[in-house]
Amino acid sequence: MDAAGSGRAALLGTSEAGALNLLFSATHPDRAAALILLNSYARLTWAEDYSCGIRPNEAEGLLDAIESGWGKGVAFEALVASQSDNDAMRNWWARYQRQAASPGTAVMLLRRAFDTDARGVLSSITVPTLILHKAGDPFTGPEHGRYLAERIPAARYVELSGIDHLFFAEDSARLVAEIQEFLTGVRDASEPDRVLATVLFSDIVGSTETAARIGDRRWQDIIQSYYAVIHTELARFRGNEINTAGDGVFASFDGPARAIRCGLAICEAVRQFGIDVRVGVHTGECELIAGKIGGIAVHIGARVAALAQPSEVLVSATVRDLVAGSGLQFEERGPHTLKGVPGTWPLYAVSRGRRV
What tens digit of pLDDT does each residue of 195-204 get? Predict the structure, then answer.
């Protein structure tokens, strides 16, 4: 800071960088204009008086996995859960690891993070503090953020919807807006547009095994026929194709009943090609981003689809409630934990044999 001519600065620490910022703010309050912590913590490992930490045996297992998988995209799902199906970002993550450090160096630095405990300085922090934490962070849950907020005098705590530990891939506009308001007292008026939408996700069951069994040429013919069915049924039920990746399809609808009937039609039509699909449907408030939709409702839809059985349309309780009176019938599939999404979600399968 001296070299840059910076007398005071607002500090932002994410993940393990939070501890360094906590120490700096407590030691040099005259140099810290404000402190912002994002998905961070004072301590990472479990202790008798810190039950939300990672258990020592789990920490060792994680370090072993990181060392053996470093440079191959290890921990991608835990840190950027919203992009777990994004192969391009996974490859970028693997390349980033290879360019950043050797496996041994990475483990050495992460072991130091596991050894860090900054709880002793929390009560000494007097600078304005904002604590932001994602509710569905699978690596450091929001209880870490709440612990900080309860012990740093006058800290402001904001719990955000989302499932990422790292900050750059999910709802960054909301993060920037919270930080801007905290530092300046004014929030940018251009909040993202939101709309209630029904999302449908579909993919082919056992696609990798099927492709290996029948060969690339035959598989490409099936994929083309599969997408022809998708496009036909989306047009028929007024669905909007948002994205495709491999054999996965993501579409939106302005009504859940049409989405369900579209999913049933797709399941029935693709059987002629010797394949089965699984379909998931959810309705929720989505963000409009550059003409496309995103947000936690989209992630829930993808997680629901991943739990569907072959030739099954699986829906959330929200969808089942919204289509009451439509003639559609459902079978209970019990409560489920959706990866990276807080809470327990009851799911329902659309009864087979319903007319579309």
Answer: 889 999 999 9
